[in-house]
Amino acid sequence: MLIHLDARSRVPIYTQVVEQVKTMVAAGALKPGDQLPTVRQLAADLRINFNTVARAYRTLHEEGVLSTQQGRGTYVLDQPVPDVGEQRKLRRARLAELTDRFLDEAARLGYVPDEVRKSVEGGLMAQREEKGGSS
């Protein structure tokens, strides 16, 4: 399970876990019946306190996203299919989160906005050419 945490964010770590799991479920990356890592395993993978993961799983359980079964594990529950507008909203929110993280890291490394813009434009152009050449 691919979760990226930002320790510098004002958003609590457990909330970041909750939101990212919800996004993965909404996007179909996690499907109903999929088993999640144990609390201890995810805590070790993310290098955070297991109580933080336990709190996130408890929140997701209370919101009806996950089902925790003692001795069996934690599983994704069936979710109502979000409408197209909700899917777009979730995708935009995820992209905004990725963009913010990228821009924060670039600024931390000392890049100025013009350097970042040129790099992103170059990367997009390279991707376009790559996709055009492989079709």
Task: Walk me through this protein's architecture.
The protein has 135 residues and is mainly alpha-helical. The chain has 2 domains: 13-76, Winged helix-like DNA-binding domain superfamily/Winged helix DNA-binding domain (Arc Repressor Mutant, subunit A, Orthogonal Bundle), CATH 1.10.10.10; 84-134. Helices cover 61% and strands 7% of the residues. The chain contains 5 helices and 3 strands, in the order H-E-H-H-E-E-H-H. The chain has helices spanning 13-27, 39-46, 50-62, 84-108, 113-134, and strands spanning 35-36, 66-69, 73-76. The chain has a 3-stranded antiparallel β-sheet with strand order 1-3-2. A hairpin with a 3-residue loop joins strand 2 (66-69) and strand 3 (73-76). Helix 1 crosses helix 4. The longest helix has 25 residues, at 84-108.
Features of the shown structure:
single chain; 135 residues; mainly alpha; Arc Repressor Mutant, subunit A; 2 domains; 3-stranded antiparallel beta sheet; 5 helices; 3 strands; 61% helix
List the helices and strands and how they pair.
Layout: H1 13-27, E1 35-36, H2 39-46, H3 50-62, E2 66-69, E3 73-76, H4 84-108, H5 113-134
Helix pairs in contact: 1-3, 1-4, 2-3
| Class by alpha and beta content | mainly alpha
Which strands sit side by side, in order, in the main sheet? 1-3-2
CATH topology of the largest domain: Arc Repressor Mutant, subunit A
How large is the share of residues in beta strands? 5-15%
- What is the domain tally? 2
Contiguous runs where pLDDT drops below 50 for at least 5 residues: none
Give the count of helical stretches.
Answer: 5
CATH architecture of the largest domain: Orthogonal Bundle
Rg, rounded, reads 18 Å
